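Re: the multi-chain job from yesterday

Posting the exact lines I submitted so nobody has to dig through the queue logs.
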Amino acid sequence: MISLIPLFPLVGFAVNGLWYAAVQSRPGGKSASAGVTGGLATLAILASFVVSLMLFLQLQAMPAESRVIEQVAFNWMQIGDFKLDMAFRLDSLNTLFTLVITGVGTLIHIYSIGYMGHDATPGKFFAYLNLFCFAMLMLVLGSSLPILFLGWEGVGLCSYLLIGYWYADMEKASAGKKAFIANRVGDLGFLLGMFLIFTTFGTLDFVQLKSVVTAAGHGALPAGVALGTITSICLLLFLGCTGKSAQVPLYVWLPDAMAGPTPVSALIHAATMVTSGIYMLARLNFMFSLSPDAMHVIAITGAVTALFAATIAIVQTDIKKVLAYSTVSQLGYMFLGCGVGAFGAGVFHVITHAFFKALLFLGAGSVIHGMSEEQDILKMGGLRSRMPKTFFVFLIAWLAICGIPPFSGFFSKDEILWTAFSSPHGSTWLWAIGAATAVMTAFYMTRLFSLTFLGQPRFKESHGHSQHADHAHDSHAADDHGHGHGNGHGHSDGIHVHESPWVMIGPLAVLAVLSALGGFMGIPHMSWLEHWLEPVLGAHHGIAEGINPSMEWTLMGVSVAGAVVGILVALKLYSNLGAAAKIKDASSFLHKVLTHKWYVDELYEAVFIRPINALSKGLWKGFDVAVIDRIVLGFGRVSQAAGQAARTIQTGSIQVYALVLGLGLIATVGYLVYGFAR
Amino acid sequence: MDLNPYFFFAFAGLAVAFALMVVLKKNPVASAFSLVMVFFCFAAIYAMMNAHLVATLQVLVYAGAIMVLFIFVIMLLAVDVESFDLGRSHRGLRVTAGVMTSTLLALFVWMFRNTSTFGKHGTHTLEQIQAVGGNTQAVSQLMFSDYILPFELTSVLLLAGIVGAVAIAKRQSARKEAK
Amino acid sequence: MSALVVEPWLVLSFAAVIFFIGLTGVLIRRNILVLLMCIELMLNAVNLTFVMFSKQLENLGGQMAVFFIMTVAAAEAAVGLGLVIALFRTLRTVDTDQIQLLKE
Amino acid sequence: MALLDNHLLSVLVFLPLVWALVGLALPAGKEGGVSRIWALVGSLLVFALSFQLYGRFDAASAEMQMVEKLPWIESLGVSYALGMDGISLWLLLLTTFLTPIVILGSFSAVEKRFKEYYFLLMALETGMLGAFVATDVFLFYVFWEVMLIPMYLLVGIWGGKDRIYAAMKFFVYTMVGSLLMLVAIFYLAHQHQVQFGSYSTALSDLYKLALPGDGWWSIQAILFLAFSLAFAIKVPLFPLHTWLPDAHVQAPTGGSVILAGVLLKMGGYGFLRFAFPLFPAAVAQYQGIFMILSVVAIVYGAWVATVQPDVKKLVAYSSVSHMGYVVLGLFSLNSVGVTGALYQMLNHGISTGGLFLLVGMIYERRHTREIADFGGITKVMPLFAISLMIMTLSSVALPGTNGFVGEFLILLGAWKANQVLAAIGALGVIFGAVYMLWMFQRVMFGPTSNPENQKLKDLGARELVVLLPLIVAVFFMGVAPNFFFSKMETSVAAFLKRTQPALSAVATAQNASSQQIETTESQ
Amino acid sequence: METAQTLIRPDLLNLTPEALRALLPYLVVFAGSVVALLFCVIRAFNPKWLVTWVAVVVCAAGGYLSSQQIGAPTQGLLNGMMVSDAFSSFFNIVFLACAGLTCLASVKYLDREKLQHPEYYVLVLFSALGMMLMTSALDLVVTFIALEIMSLAVYVLVGFRRADRKSNEAAIKYFILGSAASAIFLYGVALLFGATGTMNTREILSAIQAQPELVTPLFTLGAWLAILGFLFKVASVPFHMWMPDVYEGAPAPVTGFMTTGLKAAAFATLVRLVVGLGYGKGLTQMVQDHLHTIFWVIAALTMVVGNVVALTQTNLKRMLAYSSIAHTGYLLVGIVPGGVGGYGPVVMYLTSYAIMNLGAFVVLSILAKKDDSGLNLQDLSGLSQRRPWLAFALSVFLLSMAGIPPTAGFAAKYLLFYSAVQAGEIPLVIVGVLASAVSVYYYLRVLVFMYMKDPVESADGAAAPTGAFWASLVAASLVVLTFQVGFLPARLLEIAKRVALGL
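And the result, structure tokens for all chains:
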């Protein structure tokens, strides 16, 4: 039954993919409409969702401690003591992920039918989407690390394919490649971590692993395993997480990933794939919690990422870039939560974040759609009246991410902040960074919101086009050649802003509801979620000594207040762009650094890419060709030269020939004489 | 060795001198005549060693037949060219060759000097040879019994030599016919 | 009384001298005919060695060998001179320095 | 069919040659039409026949199976001995599988001297199959050398601009390597005579030899190095790899595919079949060095591949990297690593073979392989793009494809043997993605700006038929590796068993010496 | 006592039937050459084809008679001057086969070169007779005379293209250096005679084995000079200088005959000499060691120099000459250890080498244009397209020389090096295999021109000679033999071993 969950999208992928490859891509082949292919894909993922839901209900009916459903599909590989089953296991942790993936996935699929309505190759797009869902489901359902890794790499691939979906634009293709390679760097850590686990514990299956690792009792090291080994394992795996979940130092790919179609950004780069790192941490929480050092690293990385990305987000002007950095920042929160031991809080934030960030992205997509591919928020403004539905759902999402109660973001973020403060792994500093980030989040989100929806339009509007929204943006979809920013600017007539069709708004509405109410599953002190996750994540860890539990309410107040302040400042500031510009001028250096994202890309380019490229060229020309080949050919040349030299004796003169004969005679007879004389 | 040392050294010295002339004389005819003189000296030494048949043949075959052939060819060819005195090869070669052969000579002589054991003696003592009728008798008898095979082979050799010499030296009639 | 005795090595050395004079001739002369003569010198040195040993070891085999060598020398001379004539017909020379068409 | 029952291997080995000889007698036909159909039918027949191997192979036994043995040069103990086990089974099938693909793939690539081309391909198949089933070192050497000539001619006659240079380099390089192996073979046979009183070059007899193997320059070590030189050149292992880029680039497509697909495997196969069981102590001694070299090959090959301006050369250097994995896995000397290496050999045959075929297809259309000449091909050749993407993914070892299984197991095995080297080797995972994807991007993505590229035709039916089996294999091998492992397992274990005592002996010796150092230091 | 004593031993002249049978091959060949000579002289017959066929038939008959003798017991003939044993009988077959095939393959060539003189065949027969006698001889005087019979005939054959300067030059060079080497050999024989009192190698061997003090400096010098004479004939470095020039200048079939028959004869005699002079089993330790070192160095040098210089050659005949030097080096590897174990493989190698080299030169003689021109590498461009079978045959022969399986050359080289490894000569074998790795390059270069280059349109390209039926037949049969020995070397090896055992 479990294997049906990934199977449906796989079938969807196969049908759409083969249909596309065999028919639609042929010369003269006609593209199927987005409605048909998208409908097919949506059906597939919907079926998964239904199955997930059924299984979820089934789980719920079970007693808490035995909430596990397992299925072994087949034996994948077996060599000696290394045995690996293609097996799935559903428990209380990944059932949530499954629901989010299939649920949000379904919504995004539906949304895409509208959004990609005029794309040239919707068949391909939906095949990719289904493939992604398949991989993501494998990731969360896998019963062992290699299966997880299979999904892990699979989602990376889909991310690559979808970011580079409009491949004709070299920059987008590059962004896809960047994503894949940055992910690969992380995967290296994952792989090695996996090896280390196998050589240390002899198994890669989660359940077995847990029983081995926790054999010595909770919080105690298993017999014969050094703490250093555990720490190494955790850090290696965490390297994988930094790649997949876009943490410092491997986060660089995520902002670029916005080159893909917006639903992709929502699905992959906000709601699901990037949270797989959290999933893994949560899955292996028993391991991570053994190593305080690793936990510290994770918490600090999370906090730093959160803050760092927030600073960049403040100055971005591309609507999707802002959201991308915000995603990085929010992921930082999640890691902060996990790092301080609150895996439950991390998972909670994953879920709420999936709702509101998907909503934000899809809303942004709707805006972009309505603005005929315009993505620069400085060229928007005043969309409240022109796209009222979008405005409304966006409002909810905005409030959710800013952490305004009672929207979902508030609950999850607050729990993370509180544990960061109170947990034995936490500290005031971590809380402070988190809180500061919260303020900044509120600020830049408000900036985004304000610049997009409020105020006056900063674009030239055109009227008189057809009332039907579908016709207004045929420019971008008819031909993917010229797709990109340039197209939006090319409308000398101005932009006909229009509200999106119902297939897009519908999912938005659902997500809005979830964003608004999703937080109630984890209300502090009576959290259904925490209880639900207890079999996997263990009981709540309690708080460090010397922390007054009542501080929780104080801190909550402080962070909400901070968020409100951030919102108000931003609203004030961006109601008048002139004032904003002044501040920008006043801090031109800082602004420049931030706009260039702290020059991290440039740094990587200078430190890794160029040197290795130069080294490679050097090795090729300077070593392969100049040394090895020269040596090899040198043998030949030396032989040739020796041959030439020996030829010169061969003068053709009888006397010389006789002379050489005589010399041979002397040498040999002399040697014999020497033998006798000795 | 019951060889008269005075005569031996005299003839040996003469032979060496003439041999040097063979090598050093520019004119091939002079070389040829010097060679004849060497042959004569050798014949004398053979005679002193009681190898009478060999001494005779030395004169007949070498000094007679072979040298005549040489002179004949020299004359035959010399008619056609202006200068037949080609002299010697260039100096470096000459010096190297000289050094080389002297060294070799020294090495050989060292080998000879350091040998005291020789092979076992045969049965052909002087008395034995006298008994069968002298050197010529003895050699001839051996030739037709012990050495019958090489003797017969010399006939094949001569035949081959004749065919070869004819084949190589005859006027190129075949070619002309073909033309 | 003469203390002077012709020791075998002396005869051998004399033969070697002649042999190497012949070899030197082969090395330094350019006229092919003289080269042929020098080879005759070498053969004669060998003959002398044979005769010497024949006498010393009281074995007529040495003299037999000389007889055969003479025959061979004659045949060799015949063929060799034939070759020289053939060569002279085409090259109009007997100079070894002129016959270096084949080399390297 | 008593012939098939008793002499299946012989029939399999020599059928291609005989078939090809008959083909020589036939007319070539218009544009080589007769020749190529004849060759295709023949190779398919061989492929079908090779299924018999699969069916009759008993996976539970580590012994040589379907053994044939005839005295050949009795006085030297040389016999015509064939046999196969789980190690050779898949390599044989790979060979018979790739040959029809190559032949079909060459239909349009070959434009001259058709008859000879197909003759040589089939003759090559005989050589390759023979080398995989020979259980006598002499016989193996014979087949090993015999393979060279058809390949040499294939490169030299139908190759690119510098084909002669490449062909020469290929031949002489390989020959130099194998000749020292020949001397080592002599020595082994001689030792057999010394130790057992009779000459023999049969592998099973030579396994029994007791050769001193302590230290770096023991007899075993020297013999091992002699064998290894031959195999390392063939693999090719850094730094003996420089013939490969030239040969690959210059060879015609079919040649490249066979070269990458099968010939390189001879090296790995040789290590496993000959070097390991014959010289266990030396293998244990040199394990580290070979692992280092293979790790260097992995990273080095990947780096150099990154900067290649020529697609084919890029794929060639990627072979260096991938075969580095193979050697790494082999020298990890544990069942996981060795199985992974064997599997990687198959994978490499499939994926790199596929890549070469694809490069060949685009070359036929554009007559260039410079990456800079391409761009935006996806637009005009979507099926080509899909195929290339699949092969690329297989090459970068994406889970779900065959490449992953191999690399994963190899790295896991290597990790067990030496964690640092495995970690460095795993860097190849990153760099592999870098060069493949960058190449893919530059060739396939971007605007189709070059007008010559705009009119390219997508893959035709024949080309799809060529590629489909490979694509299916990529996924099948990625999903169901056990299908393959189950047949190899026993044999691999049997081979490794011989190295284990030596391995532990070397380990103890090293421990002892390090302890000694420690004690002396503590004193 | 007046009874006249006599040295004549009538028993020597009474030949037993066995002895007669043993002598029969020689007599037949001699008689055959005389008959052929008569046909030359008597113009009434049309000798053009008759002499050829007489020669071929004689060779065949002689070969058949010799083959009957292989199994016969060893017997010394005519005062032990020569011996009829398996070794000599086997080589008789080889020589006669070479001679016969050369005659057959030469017919068209001589026609084309306008050299169709019947003396050619007579001389081939004479030289074959010389070879046979030389290999059978035990007495060094007989060896010498036989050597001269062979050499004189071959000198003339080399210069047979009388109107061609190259041919003349080659003949005169060969003659002068050959005569000098003969003189050196003879000098050695003289010294040996002095040192041991006999010229019969059997007796020399038993003498020094019985009396080790006989291994004097004089003996050593004599032995070495005698061996050197044959090292010259087989063209081992540094006594090899004559060979490339001679091979290049000689008519192609003659070169083929020389590289095969003459080389095999010289080498076989060298083996007899080496055995007879006690190398490996009769010399004092010091002399043995020193001679071993000398042989070792010469073998190594020969392999290296031959192959390395061949790399630079562009004329096929000349290249094959250098390659022939290299093969001498390989053969010497079989002699260096000084044990009987090495001689069997030497015999085997000589036979295989004769097969492939004769084949190569037959192909060359078919390909050659006027005066053996047109044998440069460039001239072979695209041969595989113009004349595919010839190209194939030449490739087979060349690959066989390179030692690539499954050809005779590989099997023979394998066995040769194998025996050397057994004898502990591993470093030498390594030199050998590395040298043969070098050799691969130049052999393959020929293939490059034949197969990988396109035909060039030369001015007289149209006049490419065709239609050499007999020569083609010879080449084809040699290809078959090359493969046969390559695939099934066991039989030949058994024979070779047995042959060598009797030494």
